[in-house]
Write a structure and sequence with these properties.
The chain is about 20% helix and about 30% strand. The chain has about 130 residues and is of the alpha/beta class. The longest helix is centred in the first third of the chain and has 14 residues, at about 1-15. The protein is elongated.
Length: about 130
């Protein structure tokens, strides 16, 4: 009888969440350009409290598996303004982020589009001789 009671007590304690156990939460979603709507790859997604991070794939998709519910999310990529958000989550969450291009990059793109190249034919000298080492 003692064995049955002890087994039940152990089973019940095993089923109850302990105070030191943290809830696992998944944050996933997509990173897009706010102007064009296109997916952005290789974007850095970092949860600052835990130091857990990832990068987005070619479709802009990312997924973070985190312990805890208080999240400090930081998203960055060259050419775009950084995005930062503090969240308190209780379940798995999908978060779609639209990054805003930096103003400097818009000017650079505009200047690059305005550059024109011209090809001028070379003037050939009439007094050149054909020389060959063979």
């Amino acid at each position: 009888m003692k064995t049955v009671i002890l087994t039940h007590v152990i089973f019940i304690l095993w089923m109850l969440p302990g105070p030191g156990w943290a809830q696992v939460i998944t944050i996933s979603g997509y990173i897009n350009n706010s102007i064009s709507g296109k997916a952005i790859e290789n974007v850095s997604i970092l949860e600052a409290n835990s130091g857990v991070g990832t990068i987005s794939n070619q479709n802009g998709f990312y997924r973070l598996v985190l312990k805890g519910k208080d999240i400090d999310l930081k998203i960055s990529n060259d050419g775009f303004k950084d995005f930062s958000k503090q969240l308190s989550l209780s379940a798995d969450t999908t978060l779609v982020v639209k990054l805003v291009p930096k103003a400097d990059d818009k000017r650079r793109q505009k200047k690059a589009g305005e550059i024109h190249a011209e090809a001028k034919p070379e003037k050939k000298s009439t007094d050149q001789q054909n020389w060959s080492p063979f």
